[in-house]
Write a sequence for this structure.
């Protein structure tokens, strides 16, 4: 965690919100620490101190934090409670990703993975690939990767390989994803699951497949391995999984890439829904949340695709073109207060 990374992620959030056309801007923050080596009490004290220091720059009408790497609904609950203690009344809309009982939204935990599934479904339609039976490879099996795998499995796709930080497994006939998820709940790793053969995380990127979903860390597809990617579609579940040099290589090879600021924007979209519900004090069913998410993700995908086709450019450039134009348009409408 450093200032450059946080600054880049803040910019990413700006364009991500603009691509899906929700009325949020972009900001990011973080703490340089290793939470796996901290007790629950230490995590709580650190979170509350951090929130107290940010009191002047966060709020329902200022910046609304949401969970990211190494944070969860419990940490968001501490943020909400700390802010509320200072405000002297409960302010649920200061943060999203909260537990359901504290003003969280139904469907928020699955939102990023569900948005990725919608993006992949629309990309398959565009490329003439049937999602039912499509061979999918998923790098990363945390919340995003596991939910994506589960939803693709339910759509009839065949998940032929997955991996996490400990290692991977593959099965050309398709992995039993519900059983794997139960295995991971018990063991905290995909390694050891009997429904597949072991494979390294590096090799998983080189498998021949219809859809590759890098849903782990940034910079995993590089100039060194991009030539070996054998997927028809790359769906960026993580932020920045493809380096700039690798991006050019994938594009030159005709691989259809769904950029991160479009593909994984389901999370921030349902964070927006949570904020709206908290502001209203009226909450939607999970079915309503999922329907609204589908509407926004499908519309955003088609907006980017149309921009790509009209300007004869790839989907990443098209996504940035669309996002920057939307931010520019409202900036020009507002003018300059001198």
């Amino acid at each position: 965690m450093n200032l450059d990374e946080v600054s880049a992620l803040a910019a990413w959030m700006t364009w991500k919100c603009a691509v899906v056309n929700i009325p949020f801007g972009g900001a990011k923050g973080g703490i340089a620490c290793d939470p796996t080596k901290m007790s629950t009490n230490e995590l709580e004290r650190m979170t509350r101190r951090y929130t107290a220091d940010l009191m002047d720059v966060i709020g329902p009408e200022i910046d609304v934090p949401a969970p990211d790497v190494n944070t969860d609904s419990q940490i968001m609950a501490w943020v909400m409670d700390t802010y509320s203690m200072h405000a002297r009344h409960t302010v649920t809309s200061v943060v999203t990703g909260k537990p359901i009982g504290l003003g969280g939204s139904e469907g928020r935990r699955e939102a990023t993975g569900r948005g990725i599934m919608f993006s992949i479904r629309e990309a398959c339609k565009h490329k003439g690939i049937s999602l039912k039976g499509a061979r999918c490879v998923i790098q990363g099996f945390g919340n995003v990767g596991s939910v994506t795998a589960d939803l693709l499995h339910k759509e009839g796709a065949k998940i032929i390989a997955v991996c996490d930080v400990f290692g991977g497994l593959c099965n050309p006939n398709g992995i039993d994803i519900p059983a794997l998820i139960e295995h991971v709940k018990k063991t905290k790793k995909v390694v050891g699951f009997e429904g597949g053969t072991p494979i390294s995380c590096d090799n998983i990127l080189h498998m021949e497949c219809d859809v590759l979903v890098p849903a782990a860390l940034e910079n995993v597809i590089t100039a060194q391995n991009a030539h070996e990617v054998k997927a028809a579609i790359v769906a960026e579940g993580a932020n920045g999984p493809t380096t700039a040099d690798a991006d050019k290589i994938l594009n030159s090879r005709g691989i259809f890439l769904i950029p991160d600021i479009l593909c994984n924007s389901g999370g921030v979209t349902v964070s927006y829904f949570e904020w709206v519900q908290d502001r209203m004090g009226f909450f939607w069913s999970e079915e309503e949340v999922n329907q609204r998410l589908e509407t926004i993700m499908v519309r955003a995908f088609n907006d980017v695709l149309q921009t790509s086709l009209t300007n004869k450019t790839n989907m990443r450039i098209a996504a940035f073109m669309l996002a920057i134009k939307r931010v520019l348009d409202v900036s020009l409408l507002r003018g300059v207060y001198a």
About this structure: Residues 219 and 241 are 4 Å apart (CA to CA).
